[in-house]
Predict the structure.
Amino acid sequence: MSHIVVIRSYKPSDELKCREIAKDGIMSSLNTAFLGNVFREVTFEMMILCAALMFIFFGVPFTICIMVVPIVIILIYILTYASLVTKSMEVDQEISNIPRIYTSHAFCGFWVAEAFEPYLMTRNPKDVRYSIMTEKQFRESNVDVSSQTKKTVGMIALTKSRRVDKGAWIKRLAVDRHYQRKGIGACLLNVAIQFAIDQRYGSVETVASEYTEGGRELCFNRGFELRQMYHKQIVGSLVTVLMYELTYQIKPLEREIVIPPKSHARSFMCS
């Protein structure tokens, strides 16, 4: 196996790459978020209102009033970009404190996906099929990776929910855009859920925006259910994001689950 991805616990040396993955993941939704905000009903209402006020009360020529349209569009882009940059800065600050927030508590966890590849990687990762395994499976496989390079390509975090009793909260699920659609995100999610089961949590919750369709689909495929939907205001009603709150109920039988032998463990954890 020359191309392997291992899901393992976070190490301080992963911080820089985790920051990059988080930033890229947040900023990648810029165009989608911008277009979504532009075509909201409130946007057109604001354009019409501004143009009408300029034309009726200030006597501004109609041709000039029309200029309010590109001005509003530019304003929305700036506000959308600023909101994503602000979010990116908040996440960056959190990642710099992973040891304090996550890894120093028994009921929390932070994991990364680490890719092992040949030093002379001539193929695009999008065209490569990777064997994905957990840290335990990797140790048991005795695969020689001494001649390969490695890099962090994904991450996920789990902490105790502040709102739900005996509930866990999944955060920061992200995969490098060059390594998406390969099952890495699904395996990261499986590892986090298994951790919640081992810690005897009663449920696992997460939240996804309308612009992270891939993440929502991944959670639904794993058994998450929609708990509620709500609009999160970024800049009043002008810039908002539709949020999906998802929940996964841990069944009593799952609490007593026993990891099967190695030959079956891989399909359970990282199929």
